[in-house]
Amino acid sequence: MALTKKQIKQLRAMANSLKPLFYVGKNDLTESANQADETIEKHELIKCAVQDGSGLTAKEAAAELAEQLNAEVVQSIGNRFVLFRRSRRDDVGHIRLVRE
Questions:
Q1: DSSP symbols for 44-74
Q2: What pTM does this model have?
Q3: Distance CA 62, CA 77 (A)
Q4: CA-wise closest residue to 55 among 84, 19, 30
Q5: What pLDDT digit, counting tens, does each position of 42-84 carry?
Q6: CA distance linking residue 59 with residue 47, whole number of Å
Q7: Burial (Cβ within 10 Å: 0-12, 13-18, ≥19) of residue 2
Q8: What does R_g of the chain's alpha carbons equal in angstroms?
Q9: Burial, 19: exposed, middle or buried (Cβ in 10 Å; 0-12, 13-18, 19+)?
Q10: Distance (Å, rounded) from C-alpha 24 to C-alpha 36?
Q11: Mapping DSSP to helix (H, G, I), strand (E, B) and coil, where does residue 28 land?
Q12: Which end of the chain has the least Cβ crowding within 10 Å, N or C?
């Protein structure tokens, strides 16, 4: 599911006020993929932060984690990045994306 420019703009605006829910530390992405999967399933849009001890940059971590989670990278700035994936759960408030 590729996001359009308008959808990315909408998601970036929504992510602006979010606090990081997921951190990539010195163990990089080894054990943390399951935790990230649960988090993105609950929220659909998550902001993540790469800590100083990590060997990855934010862009590398975003690309790797997005591939593992089958998610889309919305943006990557500094040591933070934002991911989006549509949730399959019914009890989650789904984000309504704009259409082209």
A1: SEEEEEE-TT-SS-HHHHHHHHHHHHT-EEE
A2: 0.90
A3: 11
A4: 30
A5: 999 999 999 888 888 999 999 999 999 999 999 999 999 999 9
A6: 13
A7: exposed
A8: 13
A9: exposed
A10: 10
A11: strand
A12: C
Q: Are 12 and 100 in contact (CB under 8 A)?
A: no
Structure tokens at 57: 């940059």
**Closest by CA position to 58, among listed 27, 36, 80, 38:** 80
CA–CA gap between residue 44 and residue 34 (Å, rounded):
15
SS3 assignment, position 91: coil
One-letter identity of residue 63: A
Q: CA torsion sign, 69 to 46 to 57 to 34?
A: negative
CA gap 60, 93 in Å, rounded: 29
Count Cβ atoms below 10 Å from residue 66 Cβ, excluding itself. Answer: 19
